[in-house]
Amino acid sequence: MERGHVARVVVADDEPVVRWSLRTGVESSGEFHVVAEAADGEEALEAVRAHLPDVLLLDTRMPRLNGVRTTAALHAEAAAEAGEGDVGAGAVAGPVGIIVMTALGLDAEVEQALVLGADGFLRKDASREELLAALRAVRDGDAVLPAEVLQRVLGAVPAPGAAARRQARDRLAELPPREAGLLALVARGLTNREIGERLGLDEETVAGRVGLLLAELGAANRLQLALLAHAAGPEGG
Fold it and tell me: Which of 80, 92, 152, 204 is the most core-located residue (most Cβ within 10 A)?
């Protein structure tokens, strides 16, 4: 993203007061602009198609389509546009970054949305600073899930069968050692800054390398990289 670019955001929540609060928080720093609001999942899909936002703030519980089904629909559309067809969880989730929101914290619906390609989640009572930090992370391709949350999501994913594990290992087999090491750090939930401190690199360089790794493996986001590494399992396992 070019320096000085004001990122475009769609806010989807069935409560007008919540949408107003989120809009106020989103636009408070001047880095983000709300280009559309949506009161349900169908409206959220229409808004994404019409406005091509950088980030979608998506309530998990809405009329017509909830956050999980909306995430799945965006996932399917993006995969179809990429010519991949219906390839299931782990495929490209599209250019829009998705942050799912909930009043209850991390629950089964949030976990489903994350596995389907959402980039992170926020509680609705998150502070303005937490909201902006999540938006910046998604905008910049950085980690938006704390490491402990990532591990909980991975723990909720069913163990892959032999065929799925073999397929995941085949996808990772051609990675050079440097990229394999980077994948291992991403899969642990480390941020670009934390990875840079371990590897002696600046954050911009790490972000570039993570971006190349995403493209090479056809992953939508860092969570998808972690899911792929989780499916492959430890070497020799």
Answer: 92
Residues 116 and 219 in one domain: no
The pLDDT of residue 90 is 40
pLDDT tens by residue, 185-203: 999 999 999 999 999 999 9
The token duo for 212 is 């190349």
Q: In what order do the strands lie in the sheet with 7-12?
A: 32-38, 7-12, 55-59, 97-102, 120-123
Q: Are residues 136 and 211 in the same domain?
A: no
Q: Is residue 237 part of a domain?
A: no
Query: How far is the C-alpha of 14 from the C-alpha of 61, rounded, in Å?
Result: 8
- 154-163's contacts with Cβ under 8 Å and 24+ in sequence apart are 154/226, 154/227, 154/230, 156/108, 156/111, 157/115, 157/227, 157/230, 160/231, 160/233
Same domain, 188 and 97: no
Q: Give residue 83's pLDDT.
A: 60
- Sites in the chain below the pLDDT cut of 70: 1-4, 79, 82-95, 235-237
Give 3-state DSSP helix, strand, coil % of the chain, rounded to 5.
50, 10, 35
Please write down the HEC assignment for all residues of 173-209: CCCCHHHHHHHHHHHCCCCHHHHHHHHCCCHHHHHHH
Domain that holds residue 223: 161-232
